């Protein structure tokens, strides 16, 4: 860190410290803090609604014209890839949560996907 960068950092930290000590509260940021996630959720739900509605209408038209052919779904392959994904994600989360928080209930955030992933992989192995 250069001396100029250190001075800028010190000045910023002093401004924050003074604002905290004086009890000043600028609540204007809270509006954005609350509105942005709500707008994102509403937009995402609207987008998903119209996407599924379009797929439904498309299937209805294909059925009406007798062109609909359902594709076969291979649950065993799906279980394999989802099991791999959940196992590795759960393992990584478990290790990180143990290192950061120690052995606590937060560790379940990694153990649960790990157990589900191992269950799906065992389903894949046992189902022939």
Question: Any key phrases for this structure?
Answer:
single chain, mainly alpha, 2 domains, 80% helix, flat
Task: Explain this structure.
- The chain is mostly helical and 128 residues long.
- The protein folds into 2 domains: 1-71, no CATH class; 72-128.
- It is built from 4 helices and no strands.
- The longest helix has 37 residues, at 28-64.
- It starts with a helix and ends with a helix.
- The relative contact order is 0.07.
- The model has no long low-confidence stretch (mean pLDDT 89).
Provide a brief overview of the structure.
This protein has 128 residues and is mainly alpha-helical. The termini are far apart.
The overall average pLDDT, rounded, is 89
Helix content: over 70%
Task: Give helix and strand order, one letter per element, not per position.
Answer: HHHH
The main β sheet shows up as:
none
What count of domains describes the coordinates? 2
Over the alpha carbons, how many angstroms does the gyration radius reach? Answer: 26 Å
Low-confidence stretches: none
Figure out the total of helices: 4
Question: Proportion of β residues?
Answer: under 5%
User: Which overall shape is indicated by the principal axes computed on the Cα atoms?
Assistant: flat
Give the strand tally: 0
Structural class by SSE content: mainly alpha
Which secondary structure elements does this structure contain, and how are they paired or packed?
Blueprint: H1 3-22, H2 28-64, H3 75-101, H4 108-126
Helix pairs in contact: 3-4
């Amino acid at each position: 860190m250069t001396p100029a960068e250190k001075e800028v950092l010190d000045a910023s930290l002093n401004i924050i410290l003074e604002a905290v000590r004086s009890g000043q509260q600028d609540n204007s940021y809270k509006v954005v803090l609350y509105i942005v996630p709500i707008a994102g959720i509403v937009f995402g739900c609207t987008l998903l609604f119209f996407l599924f509605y379009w797929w439904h209408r498309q299937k209805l038209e294909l059925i009406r014209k007798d062109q609909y052919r359902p594709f076969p779904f291979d649950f065993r392959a799906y279980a394999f890839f989802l099991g791999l994904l959940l196992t590795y994600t759960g393992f990584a989360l478990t290790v990180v949560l143990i290192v950061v928080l120690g052995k606590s209930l937060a560790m379940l955030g990694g153990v649960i996907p790990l157990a589900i992933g191992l269950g799906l992989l065992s389903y894949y192995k046992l189902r022939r």
